[in-house]
Amino acid sequence: MTHLELIDFLDYWDKKDKWLFTLSYFAVCFHKESLQNLKISLSRLSKKGYIVHVSKGLYANPRTRCSMLFQEYEVANHL
């Protein structure tokens, strides 16, 4: 996954007020990429600041326009 693919993905879901994603959700959406390559891509992109690694298997969009950005109960529901 490239950073442009990730930004397009995040922007698309941001319009639908979705800003928190699980690894399995990425695996479904980027099904052509192996799980190992997907993990490597997400790690690389999180280090560059394109996405935030919240906890194991949970990622957040730092560019979201959603008003619920990183609210604790929203994150806790996914843990």
Name the shape in a single word: globular
CATH architecture: Orthogonal Bundle
Strand order of the largest sheet: 1-3-2
Report the portion of residues in β strands: 5-15%
Number of helices: 4
Number of strands: 3
**Total domain modules:** 1
Largest sheet: 3 strands, antiparallel
Mean pLDDT across all amino acids: 87
Instruction: Find the structural class using helix and strand composition.
Output: alpha+beta
Reading the helices and strands in chain order gives HEHHEEH
Q: Multimeric state of these chains?
A: single chain
For the record, the CATH class is Mainly Alpha
Tell me the CATH topology.
Arc Repressor Mutant, subunit A
What are the segments in which pLDDT stays under 50 over at least 5 consecutive residues? none
CA gyration radius, whole angstroms: 12 Å
Distance between the termini: 25 Å
Residues in helix, %: 40-55%
Protein name: Transcriptional regulator
Descriptive report:
This is Transcriptional regulator. The chain has helices spanning 3-14, 23-29, 35-47, 72-78; strands at 20-22, 52-55, 58-60. With 79 residues, the protein is an alpha+beta fold. It has a single domain (3-78), classed as Arc Repressor Mutant, subunit A (Orthogonal Bundle), CATH 1.10.10. Strands 1-3-2 form a three-stranded antiparallel sheet, with helices on both faces. β2 (52-55) and β3 (58-60) form a beta hairpin. The longest helix is centred in the middle third of the chain and has 13 residues, at 35-47. It starts with a helix and ends with a helix. The model has no long low-confidence stretch (mean pLDDT 87).
